[in-house]
TrEMBL record:
<keyword id="KW-0808">Transferase</keyword>
<feature type="domain" description="Aminotransferase class V">
    <location>
        <begin position="29"/>
        <end position="396"/>
    </location>
</feature>
<keyword id="KW-0663">Pyridoxal phosphate</keyword>
<dbReference type="GO" id="GO:0031071">
    <property type="term" value="F:cysteine desulfurase activity"/>
</dbReference>
<dbReference type="GO" id="GO:0006534">
    <property type="term" value="P:cysteine metabolic process"/>
</dbReference>
<protein>
    <recommendedName>
        <fullName>cysteine desulfurase</fullName>
        <ecNumber>2.8.1.7</ecNumber>
    </recommendedName>
</protein>
<comment type="similarity">
    <text>Belongs to the class-V pyridoxal-phosphate-dependent aminotransferase family. Csd subfamily.</text>
</comment>
<dbReference type="GO" id="GO:0030170">
    <property type="term" value="F:pyridoxal phosphate binding"/>
</dbReference>
Length: 409
């Protein structure tokens, strides 16, 4: 199982938390869609920053300010390379994917979306990619429209084509569903939107840790993700925006750092990305994110994708064979997530039984209520895998679910 170049046991030793025990059992972390663990390289990089480089950036001409600025801007370069952006000026640091989407809604959305305009999202979206657009639509008198999915949880491109029209200003769509694991055809979605002159925001929160992403190949106008879901720290995330597009946008928050010159009569703003980074940013965690992306690139995203596909196929086949298990989300193209419900059990009961064995899964609605309701459920059990998981861990999960299924029959 796995790729010849991929030694999972060596990889696991890079993650100190994987040696934890929970309820006397080895921890099996299947909650990667909620957040991922940090390799020692990231933990060390954060400690090194605070021990040797800590300073505010840009403002002071002294040695530590120079070190901190180099580390922060170095991280921006790493993110730009990781996403295949044209340059670091296309990368804005924010708190996470949620803040990233709100930033785009309150800059691009405020400027370009008006009464009678239309915003398209998919039925798969996380609440973070629904609510900001709903709020903007209500404020502007715009209309929110929804791309339906088929019974496997895949986007229906023909229905999407029918929604597109000259009033469409923005399409906001996820690359990987956090609740179902569906990998959506984002390149097609972008191309179709551009034909009617609409811009596209791609929510990459669940994609970047599982597959190679190239924003220029996708031709995405905006691409967002969270550091903590890609083996980096919490509190740091990214907005990618095409340079020419960012240059036309108004600032977001006002304050220090984002200005070129201030008088009481007027303010001249900096060019992007600084225009969108008011105040002191999350310097250390940006640097930590850079270390996480370096780590991931050393592993190789193609190796990761290959190994994880084998894990997901293994888990899916074994879950499907258990009487009473219903898989939610059966699209051909999936990443990481195996959502299911078990007849006769609340999802929390399954989660508790797994936790008893040291196995961490999320249960509930996963901040994606519309797509679960599309399948007639309010909650699922959601194991979500990363490259440091193993088939032995999956066997432990399957044994618990099988035991529960047997006890109810
Ligand atoms: N979009 C998707 C697809 C997600 O899975 C998540 C996190 N569950 C978010 C957006 C929001 O990310 P954050 O909570 O890190 O801002």
């Amino acid at each position: 199982q796995g790729h010849p170049a991929f030694d999972v046991n060596a990889v696991r030793r890079d993650f100190p938390i994987l040696a934890e025990r929970v309820n006397g059992k080895p921890l099996a972390w299947f909650d990667n869609a909620a957040t991922t663990h940090k390799p020692q390289a990231v933990i060390d990089r954060l400690a090194y920053f605070y021990a040797h480089e800590n300073s505010n950036i840009h403002r002071a001409a002294h040695e530590l300010a120079a070190r901190a600025t180099d580390a922060y801007e170095g991280a921006r370069n790493k993110v730009a390379r990781f996403l295949g952006a044209a340059g670091p000026n296309e990368i804005i640091f924010v708190r996470g994917a949620t803040e990233a989407i709100n930033l785009v809604a309150q800059t691009f959305g405020q400027q370009c979306i008006g009464a009678g305009d239309e915003i398209i999202v998919s039925h798969l979206e996380h609440h973070a990619n629904i609510v900001p657009w709903q709020q903007l639509a209500a404020e502007k008198g715009a209309r929110l429209r929804v791309i339906p999915v088929d019974d496997s949880g895949q986007i229906l491109l023909d229905d999407y084509a029918k929604l597109l029209n000259p009033r469409t200003r923005l399409v906001a769509v996820t690359q990987v569903s956090n609740a179902l694991g569906t990998v959506t055809p984002v390149a097609d979605i972008v191309a179709m939107a551009h034909r009617v002159g609409a811009r596209v925001l791609v929510d990459g929160a669940q994609a970047v840790s599982h597959m190679r992403v190239d924003v220029q190949a996708l031709d995405a106008d905006f691409y967002v993700f969270s550091g903590h879901k890609v083996f980096g720290p919490t509190g740091i995330g990214v907005v990618y925006g095409k340079a020419d597009l960012l240059a036309q946008l108004p600032p977001w928050q006002g304050g220090g750092n984002m200005i070129a010159d201030v008088t009481f009569e007027r303010t001249v703003y900096h060019a992007p990305p600084t225009r969108f980074e008011a105040g002191t940013g999350n310097i250390a965690d940006a640097v930590g994110l850079g270390a996480a992306l370096d780590y991931l690139e050393r592993l190789g995203l193609d190796n990761v994708a290959y190994y994880e596909t084998a894990l997901l196929d293994y888990a899916t086949a074994h879950l499907r064979a258990i009487p009473g298990v219903r898989l939610i989300g059966t699209a051909r193209d999936k990443a990481s997530v195996a959502s299911f419900v078990l007849a006769g059990y609340q999802t929390e009961e399954v989660g508790k039984a797994l936790n008893q064995e040291g196995i961490a899964v999320r249960t509930g609605h996963h901040c994606a209520q519309p797509i679960l309701r599309r399948f007639g459920v309010e909650a699922t059990v959601r194991p979500s895998f990363a490259f440091y998981n193993t088939c032995e861990e999956i066997d432990r999960m399957i044994a618990v679910v099988r035991r529960l299924a047997g006890a109810r029959r």
